Structure formats: C-alpha cells, structure tokens
Amino acid sequence: MDDLYRDEILEHYRRPHNFGTLPSPTAVHEGANPLCGDRITLMLGISDAGVVDEVAFTGRGCAISQASASMLTDQIKGKPLEEIARLSGQDVLDELGIEISPARLKCALLSLDTLRHALADRIAWQAGTDVAAR
Amino acid sequence: MTLTAENAAARATPESTAGTATVRPPLDPQALRADFPIFERLIHGKRLAYLDSASTSLKPRRVLDAMDGYNRRYTTNVHRGIYTTGEEATAAYEESRVKIARFINAPDPHEIVQVRNATEAINLVAYSWGRRNIGRADTIVLTELEHHANLVPWQLLVQEKDADLEFVPIHDDGRLNLQTYEVLLRTRPKLVAFTHVSNGLGTINPVREMVEMAHAAGALVLVDGAQAVPHLPVDVQAIDADFYVFSGHKVLGPTGSGALWARRELLDAMPPFLAGGEMIREVHLRRTTFNDVPWKFEAGTPDIAAAIGLGAALDYLADLGMDRLREHERELVGYALEVLPREVPGITIYGPASADDRGGVVTFNLPGVHPHDVATLLDRDAIAVRAGHHCTQPLHERLGEAATARASFNVYSDRDDIDRLAKGLRSVQRVFDRPTSESHAATTQASANDLD
C-alpha cells in the first residue's frame, strides 16, 4: 500500500473533519493554490478570550490538501491564539506524517497558509515559522 | 544583414517538408527512443513513460550535439565577430531562421523573428502591432480554448486601450462553435487570435476556414501554433494567417527558442518591441534608426545555442516526416480513446470523440480522485502526466473542472506507454477505492455533520 496515501490520509479526505460553514464566523479566508486549483475556505469562531471555539472549512482539491485541512482544523480547535501562533509548516507536515515531495508541498501547506491569512490581523506570525520552511 | 547564398537556395525549395509521393512505413517509436538520451536513465527502476510532451518535448541527441558544438567549438556572438568563429556562429544562427521558414513553409526567412517562445511572440505582436493598431472600442476575438499566453497579453492590451474582447465558445466536445464565431465577426474585429491545436483538449481547429472568415470580415489573424508545429505538417501560406507563432521546446528543440512568422509588410510597419543592440542601424544620443526586419525585433544577444538547437530539431523532424508523425499520433490517440474507457471504469475523457479532430492529447479525470493524486501515484510507476489546468483556466471553468490530468505524445510515445497508463490508473483506483478504518473519523464525525 502506498505510504503517501495511508489509511488516515484517505480517511480524512473521504470524511473530512469540521467540514462545512459557520453561520457567523469571526474570521474567514479563502485560500487557493493557483497551479492546481486546490481551494480551501476556512471559517473561525474566536471568543473574546482569544480562543478558537469553532472552526469549519469547505474545499475542493487533492487528497493531501484536503486531509491536511481536516487535520489542521482538529489541531486548532479549542486552542488559544498564542498557541496557534506557534504552529509551523513542519508541525503540519509532522501531523500528516508522510514524505511530501517539493512539488506537493504547496498542497500540504495550503491549509496553514489559509489559516495565517485568516488570522493575519490577530497574529504576527513569527519569522522562522514560514510556510515554505521545512 | 543578408542571408547567405546557400540559405537562399534552401528557401527556394519550401516543398521539401510538404510530404513525399512515396509512402514510407510508420514511425518506429521504440527505435527512435535510442535517439533520446533521457531514456538511458531509469526512473524508480523503470523506463520513463513520458506522456507530457504537450508541456515540453524530450530532446534528441542531434539537438544536444548541435548546441554542444556551438558552446564548445564556436561560442561567439552573432552579427559582430569579424573572425572565423563569429562568422560560423552568425551563419548557424541565420541558418536556423531558414530552417524555421522552410519547416512552416514561410515564403521568406526575413519574415521569421527568432524569439524565446510562443509567449514572447504573442507579446511582441500585442505590444508592437497591438498598441499601434488597437484603439478605443475596437474588438479582438479570441476563443474559450486559449492558453493563457494567447489571452493575458490581449487582456492587458484592451485594458490599456479601452477596447473589447469577445470569445468564441466551444461545444461540449471541445470543438469551436463556428456559428457563434460568424456572429462575432459581424462586430468587425480588428484582430482574431486563436490556437491551431488546443493544448487542453487536443482539438484541431479548422484554421484555414477560420482565417478566411476573419479576413472576409476585415480582421487580421494570429494563430498560436505551439501545439500544431510539433505534431502536424504546418504550411503558413496555405493557412494564410497574418501572424503565426510557436515554441521550440515543444518541437524537440531547446527551451529559449521559438519563432514569430508575420507578413513582411506587417513587420516592416510595426514599431520595435524590445530596444537595444542589434535592432538598430544608427544610434545617436537623441535618435536612432532601426535595423531591417527581422533583426529590428531581435534586440540584445539572443539565445544562440537554443536557436541552433531548434534548427537541428526541425532537421530531425523533417527527416522523419511530419505527415508520418501526425499519422503516428492519430493512431495513438485512437488507441488511447479505445483502451482507456475499456480498462479504466468511470474515466471521463474530455475533447473531440474522433482522433481525426485531435492532436496527440488525451485529457481525463478519474471520479473522486484529484488529478494531482493521479499524477503522484503514476509517477511511482515512472509514468509522467500533467495535472492541473494546463494554463487554460477559462477552459477548465467551461468544463466545470478545477483541474484535469493530461497524457500527450510525440515520436517516442507508443502503445506500451498507453497500456502502462491504463494499468497505472487502475492501481490509482485501487488505492482510492480501498476500504479504510473509520476509527480516526468516528470521534469528530458528529460535529462535521452538524456543520453541514
């Protein structure tokens, strides 16, 4: 069986977690990978205390991009923004747990990139947590 | 600047590429692979099944040797050196121009501008001819099939000039709707620009008929030949367009080579595009007179090795015979259109149903599998296909797909490649169709459903 498409990835692709929309999100961003047409719309409900209480996404794209978004939404749900600010590209790749070729890196990291845009006015993302950094 | 006597003699026989009376046997792709050094290496332990020639073609040894010869033995600038190697370089560079003219049956090599690729050629026309001739409320007619290279330069032009773009729609099978084309021509467009062969669907457009209709409506015509010159015999005099462009790297030539053909009187009247050395006759501090065409449009040191490599590629293809290459690809497309639906359940194939209306391109999707995942898994079997929108995003919007996978052919492609593709697609389906445990999903499935 192919490692890149191991059961957990395929399962997230088939039945993505937190898939859908929020009626009144406090932060929204639509991210797209123009080369392949992967697309993710991420919606967040952030409490006054700065905690991501609710998260939902919709999207269309390859198994890697959609599984990555599904896993990322699990990861950030219920977390305070300070903790989310420390999320790096490597964390996302570790969660996926697969060897990603350079050509597919953008698919894997589209969800994090979308999250960063959604939270751009709330979090000053640290250098060194660059999406492209591995 | 003049062309050599030898070259002048060569251009007197344009019919050399027009096909011969004797019928030659079909191309032998397995034997021809020996001409392409890339097949000496194995990918993941297997022979490369290269099915991405519409993106760029592989390069035969003859091209590499020609470039290497220039780089090692007479690497010198062109049109400058008054010494042996300089004259050799100039002669080889100009000889490529003659070979390009002969290959597409242009009446005069002076009508060939050597450029980096089809994109640069179209930009040259848009900036030079377009900025002078397109004005407010003028119309340019394009089609839904166009590569971004034959779309975005015109968007920039009409934005600057406050002019309009109109688009010929396609039928569901990827052929152009010529009835609508006829209606659009009644807007009296200044220019019609369309692709000879679609890179997205392989559609071979009825160029001659379309040019005739455009001319009758008073429009000039640019034909994007990027997917035609590598795969069909092309005769620009028979097509009778006003501009014809192609890239060298898709014609078994190197990247950084390509050509614009345009009618001499158009080129003469067009202002320069890029300015600098070579394109000038006399330069004074406050005024400059320009070189003759085509050199007026070749500012700066060109990619000389690439131009020489392109000449060698066209020699290689002319020797094989473009009519044989077309027949080879027609046969392969027919085979793929028969085998893939039979061997790969559920596959969707886009574009014309008949191989007669298609260049060597088969675009497809598997249900429930993104083409990127298809391409990644096929790569494990050393099968190279393109996945994405192939620089035709509007066409993909029309198809209702964000992306597709595409297999495309050239001289080295054979039935074995297509059999391997079919087998590879079956194993992609096995990966994606297999049952997986729902244990990871079970915990949060309820919340996902709530959100729906």
What key phrases describe this protein's structure?
heterodimer, A: 134 residues, alpha+beta, Sufe protein. Chain: A, three-stranded antiparallel β-sheet, 36% helix, globular, B: 452 residues, alpha/beta, Aspartate Aminotransferase, domain 2, Aspartate Aminotransferase, domain 1, 2 domains, seven-stranded mixed β-sheet, four-stranded antiparallel β-sheet, 16 helices, 41% helix, disordered C terminus
How would you briefly describe this protein structure?
The complex is a heterodimer of chains A (134) and B (452). Chain A has 134 residues and is of the alpha+beta class.
Instruction: List segments of chain B where confidence is low: pLDDT < 50 over at least 5 consecutive residues.
Output: 4-19, 440-452
Proportion of residues in extended strands of chain B: 5-15%
The largest sheet of chain B is: 7 strands, mixed
> Biggest sheet of chain A: strands, sense, closure?
3 strands, antiparallel
Topology summary:
The complex is a heterodimer of chains A (134) and B (452).
Chain A: H1 7-14, E1 27-33, E2 38-46, E3 52-60, H2 63-76, H3 81-84, H4 89-96, H5 105-118
Antiparallel strand pairs in A: 1-2, 2-3
Helix pairs in contact in A: 1-2, 2-4, 2-5
Chain B: H1 5-11, H2 29-32, E1 42-43, E2 46-47, E3 49-50, H3 61-73, H4 84-103, E4 112-115, H5 118-133, E5 139-143, H6 152-161, E6 164-168, H7 178-185, E7 191-195, H8 207-216, E8 220-224, H9 236-239, E9 243-247, E10 258-262, H10 264-269, E11 280-283, E12 288-290, H11 304-320, H12 322-343, E13 348-350, E14 361-365, H13 371-379, E15 383-384, E16 386-388, H14 393-399, E17 404-408, H15 415-433, H16 439-451
Parallel strand pairs in B: 3-15, 5-6, 5-7, 7-8, 8-9
Antiparallel strand pairs in B: 1-2, 4-10, 9-10, 11-12, 13-14, 14-17, 16-17
